[in-house]
Each structure stands twice: as structure tokens, then as C-alpha cells.
Design brief:
Blueprint (H helix, E strand, L loop, with lengths): L1 E6 L4 H11 L6 E7 L5 H8 L4 E3 L8 H14 L4 E4 L8 H6 L4 E5 L12 H7 L4 E8 L9 E8 L6 H24 L3 E4 L2 E4 L2
Parallel strand pairs: 1-2, 1-4, 2-3, 4-5
Antiparallel strand pairs: 5-6, 6-7, 8-9
Length: 201
């Protein structure tokens, strides 16, 4: 399966995907990486792996729609079958979602529906002093962070946690369940019924 990966930062989830492919765990290839921040470490990770990567900074485009039209066109040109948001920090337009309907997944650093709809889920978990948080992989729809859930992993919040220490443990689980979810998709084992995801043997 040909993957298109959208990234905004360090690219550790992208690296987890690339490593799983290298180990033979995923029957997939990363066909294209799109990044929206100049200088993001994810760009170097893609280049080191020999993956085509494009930079789409917001200042280069008049609107978010124009930016995402350009990204979608490149993904289509690269024959991408599945889009993975691996630390992508922009809300997708309805036009982009429609172009890859049912073929976009996202990893979010909370146990959705808790702390949905923003970039500060880990900070919010600490602010509200929850005892358990975690991460979620879900299909992307036009409802922000509300698509059918594929996988979740719980992470305990420790008394002395900072945003950085909690994020490190959450990211470890993100890497695991994101690869797990992509594997299920590549093997044709996931089926969406309404708002539910059915995993078939």
C-alpha cells in the first residue's frame, strides 16, 4: 500500500512507520511526505529514508484551501492510497477530506473524545489533573477529532509529570498503535459501520 504522510514537526511517528516498513512489519511504502513547517526535523527523516518530500508553508499560499489543494494534487500524482496524519497541526478542509474519503487516519495525543479539537491535549490533561490520558488513532471526517476510532492506548499521568515527560510516554504509545492501525488497514481487516470500526480476523 502506498502511504502519504502529513507531518508538521519532529516526525517521530513518521520514523516509526519507516522503521516498521524496514523491519518488514508493514507491507507498505511511504510514497510521499508533505510538511507545512520549514526546518521541521521530519523533512530530514524523509530525505534520509529516500522518500520524496514537499514543503507547503502557509505563507506560500493565499488560503488553507489553496495549500491543501496543492498537497492533495501531489498525493494523487504519487498514487497514494492511504493518507496518514502523523503529527499534522492543521485542520483539513472538507475538499481534502472528500478527495480521500475513508482513507485518512490521524493520531491524537488523548483518549478521544477527551481533549479533542486542539494542539494542547497533553497540557490540558495536566491542567485538569486527570489520572489517565493516552492516545487515539481514528479515521478523519469533517467533524474534528470525531471520526471512528481504530485504536487507543492508555497512559497513566504521574504526580511529577511535566508536559515533556508525559508527552514522551504518550508518543511511545502513538508509535505503536499507529503502526498497528496501518497494518490492519494494509491487511484489509478494518471495516467502518456508521461511527464504529469493526476489526475482522
Amino acid at each position: 500500500m502506498r502511504l502519504g504522510v502529513l507531518v508538521s514537526g519532529k516526525g517521530t511517528n513518521l520514523q516509526a512507520i519507516l522503521d516498521a516498513i524496514a523491519r518488514g512489519e508493514l507491507d507498505a511504502t511511504v510514497a510521499y511526505v508533505a510538511c507545512n513547517h520549514r526546518g521541521a526535523q521530519a523533512i530530514e527523516r524523509a530525505r534520509k529514508a529516500g522518500v520524496p518530500v514537499g514543503l507547503y508553508t502557509q505563507e506560500e499560499y493565499r488560503t488553507r484551501q489553496a495549500q491543501q489543494i496543492a498537497i492533495a494534487a501531489k498525493l494523487i500524482e504519487a498514487d497514494v492510497e492511504q493518507v496518514v496524519l502523523a503529527g499534522w497541526d492543521r485542520v483539513l478542509t472538507s475538499e481534502f477530506v472528500a478527495a480521500f474519503e475513508g482513507r485518512i487516519i490521524n493520531v491524537h495525543p488523548s483518549l478521544l473524545p477527551a481533549f479533542a479539537g486542539g494542539l494542547h491535549a497533553i497540557a490540558e490533561a495536566l491542567k485538569y489533573r486527570v489520572k489517565i490520558t493516552g492516545c487515539t488513532v481514528h479515521f478523519v471526517t469533517n467533524d474534528l477529532d470525531a471520526g471512528p476510532i481504530i485504536a487507543q492506548a492508555a497512559v497513566p499521568v504521574l504526580q511529577d509529570d511535566t508536559e515533556e515527560t508525559l508527552a514522551e510516554r504518550i508518543h511511545t504509545e502513538e508509535h505503536r498503535i499507529l503502526v498497528q492501525s496501518i497494518k490492519l488497514i494494509t491487511e484489509g481487516k478494518l471495516r467502518v459501520e456508521g461511527r464504529s470500526v469493526i476489526c475482522e480476523p
